[in-house]
Design a protein that fits this description.
The structure is a single chain. The chain has two domains: 1-45, no CATH class; 48-140, no CATH class. Helices cover 31% and strands 21% of the residues. The protein has helices spanning 34-45, 52-55, 59-74, 129-140; strands spanning 8-12, 15-19, 92-100, 106-115. Strands 1-2 form a two-stranded antiparallel ribbon. It starts with 7 loop residues before the first strand and ends with a helix.
Length: 141
């Protein structure tokens, strides 16, 4: 079993990769085709930020954040308004993922802004009309 404090190093095509849990511990690279090997090495060598503060240090991730905010605004997903004094704001969290092409090259960096909806109470913070409309439309058919 690997110790996460002592990552193992492995070499492929003169590049050195470091991983706490290298896939080589459960899979032999020798059995992979060239395409699968390149894809496997590409996805294990990339790093996805775990926080906004980490992502904000890299221009590629900042660009992904700006694209996500623009998409939310263009789709009219949200709008800015004053919060009533009796309500608490809902927190949010950034999730960062690298999207790969089938050959293992990076297609794009994807940032998603998610609301921490688990802090809401139905009937107090929101009324879920969408579900009741779906049930009603299913019963009519």
């Amino acid at each position: 079993m690997n110790n996460s404090k002592n990552p193992k190093h492995f070499i492929h095509n003169k590049s050195v990769y470091k991983s706490n849990y290298p896939i080589s511990s459960v899979l032999s690279y020798k059995s992979l085709s060239k395409d699968h090997l390149n894809y496997t090495l590409a996805i294990t060598a990339s790093h996805e930020p775990q926080s906004y503060s980490e992502a904000s240090q890299n221009v590629k991730w900042i660009d992904a954040i700006h694209k996500e905010i623009k998409a939310l605004e263009d789709n009219k997903t949200w709008y800015f308004t004053d919060l009533p004094k009796v309500k608490k704001p809902i927190g949010c969290k950034w999730i960062f993922k690298i999207k790969y092409k089938s050959d293992g090259t990076i297609e794009r960096n994807k940032a998603s802004l998610l609301a921490k909806g688990y802090t809401q109470l139905e009937g107090i913070d929101f009324i879920d009309k969408l579900i009741s409309q779906r049930v009603h439309s299913i019963r009519r058919n």
